[in-house]
Each structure stands twice: as C-alpha cells, then as structure tokens.
Amino acid sequence: MHEALDLGITFIDTSPYYGSAEERLGKALSGRREDVILGTKTGRYGFADFDFSPRRIRHSAEESLRLLDTDYVDILQFHDIEFVPLGPVFDDCYAELRSMRDEGLCRYIGMTGYPVTAMTRAMTETDLDVLLTYAHATLLDDTLQREVLPVAEQRGVGVINAASA
C-alpha cells in the first residue's frame, strides 16, 4: 500500500463486500490517511445479500469507519443498486445517505452499478456527488461518453469508470 501511495495512487475504493479489505486498509493506511481519497460502499454484503434500509446502511458505514480506522470517508456509495427495487433506494435510503454526509461521516455521496438506465435514474432522481459505473468506456463500448457523461455534466456529478474482475 505504501509503495502504491509513493507512486502516486490517491484513490482507494473498498467495500464490506470485499471480505477483510477494510480492516487491512485501515492498518495499511495508518499514518497516511490524509494521503488518499478513501471511498467505501454500503448496501451489498454478499453475493445475494443486499440491504439498503436506513438502519442497516448507517450501521454498515459506522462499522466501515471503525475497520478503516478513520472518522470519515471521502466517498460513501450505495453498492450495486440494480439488484433491488430502485424506488426505496432513491427515497428513505438516499435520505439516510444524505444525513450521514451532513453529519460528516463522509464528504461525498454516490451510488454504483452497471446498467446505464439505473445509473441515469440515480443521477436524475437524487442529488448525488459521484457515480461509479462499470466498463462502459472501452474500445467496444462508448456508452459512458454517449449516455452517462452528458447527464452527469448537466447534474454536476463526478463519474468513476470502474472495471470489474
């Protein structure tokens, strides 16, 4: 981790879904927390284990902060929203995410997912700071540039293009 930071890596993204990654990162970032933009996610906890209820996402975020050994994360996102009905995610659940930002548990809020329609809805039906979507900016797929980025620019949303393994 220190070598990556020394080489200029500044954004670290994790999730409770990634096993013990948060705990390992908390230890690895000891004394270097201010060197990174740290993001984590909430809402997805296993292959088919999703819970975006306000109570669960708050508990998950607080546990992530404990494991990461920090008072706040820079980016807190709902993880893979397309696997649950979007209506509740955009209502009560999103309100809790906003509350956590207002309380200083995170600096920015966002949502992640693959389907462009779900990601576009997330940007237009909520007031997100950031959106993470997977593999829509490749040599074979320019959907990110054609469909996602115009909406993000209009709404003032930062976009992270991720690749899944």
How is this structure best described in words?
- This protein has 165 residues and is of the alpha/beta class.
- It has one domain (2-118): TIM Barrel.
- 41% of the residues lie in helices and 23% in strands.
- It contains six helices and eight strands, in the order αβαβββαβαβαβαβ.
- A six-stranded parallel β-sheet has the order 1-2-5-6-7-8, with helices on one face.
- β7 (130-134), α6 and β8 (158-162) form a beta-alpha-beta unit.
- α2 (21-28) packs parallel to α3.
- The longest helix has 17 residues, at 86-102.
- The protein is globular, with a radius of gyration of 15 Å.
- It starts with a helix and ends with a strand.
- The mean pLDDT is 95.
